[in-house]
Amino acid sequence: MKVIKNYLYNVGYQVLAIIVPLITSAYVSRVLRPEGVGANSFTNSIIQYFILIANMGIGFYGNRQIAYVRENRAQMSQTFWEIQIVKTIMTLYAFVAFEVFMIFYTRQPEYMWAQSINLIAVALDISWFYEGIEDFKVTVLKNSFVKIISMIAIFIFIKEPDDVTLYIIVLALSTLLGNLTLWPNIRRDLSRTDWKILNPWQHFLPMLELFIPQIATQVYVQLNKTMLGVMVNETASGYYQYSDNLVKLILALVTATGTVMLPHVANAVSHGNMEKVNKMLYKSFNFVSAISYPMMFGLAAISLTLAPKYYGPGYGPVGPAMMIESIVILIIAWSNVIGVQYLLPIHRQKQFTWSVTLGAIVNLSLNVPLIKMWGLNGAMWSTVISEIAVTFYQMWAVRDLLNFKELFLDSWKYCVAGILMFIPVFWMNLHLPQSWLMLGIEVIIGILIYGVAIWILKASILNEGRQVIKEKIHK
């Protein structure tokens, strides 16, 4: 039950972390207009490269290492401070690199300096520690409060198209304050540590192993926006960002399992219980498949109407882009299970690194020709194909470790149910007069069709759900 509780906590925060900008973006998109939104998206994509250097692969690595030693309080405290020292030093290096970059960067420098607050916030982010000890309640409640405050601040202070810099500052300060709120709990959770015995640089090379896949991942997460801003215009970069925001909201419900399961699986690996590890993997894969298929087909069915209706006039191109990008919901869900929940805990970083490196190579190879041919939609197809490459490589890497028949046992049922849901909902979205009420009706009809379909097909997820409910009642 602890895993389920942590999953719900993490889902709650991940959804809130994306739903707050979604709530505000309907307002901001109209106030700042596509040009202002694009400027924020483009400059944020640039600062993310420096944030990448500062993070140095610490998110996954720190989470996993704390999970390994959390039963020894003294060792856990030592590990925390060693990793945090490396992170602080890397953040300083990243900021120096940013200052050098700003000597040569002349395009909207005020936006970039405002974005640099995000870089400072990185040094204070210790969410990886609480994920490692599986205390998601702390990070969720404190960060949720800050997110809500930032949402209120946006509605109060962002009033006209010239407020782009102020908007960037509000978003960056919310991240900084959210990270600061985690520190008061550290004295409670750690024991006193002798600073003389700390050996932070023993973690550097293992971090570097996970830093390489983060670089590769960042290439096809941020480079698309950067290249759109350079090859097309900043407005196209904003369209990409807004499509990505809606897709990432859906993905948050799925990939939250990775953050929750990583320390859980790592702890099982540290005890040598590989049978339990594989059993958890099959269940997790079945769960994410069951929720990813309807999310993918459902978002694709309503995207053409949802995007322009939500963001307002001038955002029509977001709809087709989002319909293309919806494919990654299922693909990333699978790679999250195989990569984050399996390869990393069992020390198969090499395969994980190769998978995301392949994705980056595919993305770089396709971006230029596809963006030249199709602009925004070309960037979306490049993203989809690169994510498919990542997932297929990871599947190939675990072919001797997992039983694919068991892994995909009910996947066809979820796919059939998703298609049966997509057809009528997409028809309604195209042919009936659209309003928020109608969109709500389409979503409800889609859920009902999918639910009935997996019930008729007797999908195993229903039995697992009933077992969880029974366990909860008995407790």
UniProtKB/TrEMBL annotation:
The keyword Membrane applies. The chain crosses the membrane at residues 7-26, 46-64, 85-105, 140-158, 164-183, 246-266, 287-307, 327-344, 356-374, 380-399, 411-430, 436-457. GO terms for cellular component: membrane. Signal peptide: none annotated. Keywords: Membrane, Transmembrane, Transmembrane helix. It comes from the Bacteria. The keyword Membrane applies. Pfam families: Polysacc_synt. It is found in: Membrane. It is a multi-pass membrane protein. This is Polymerization and export protein. It comes from Lactobacillus johnsonii.
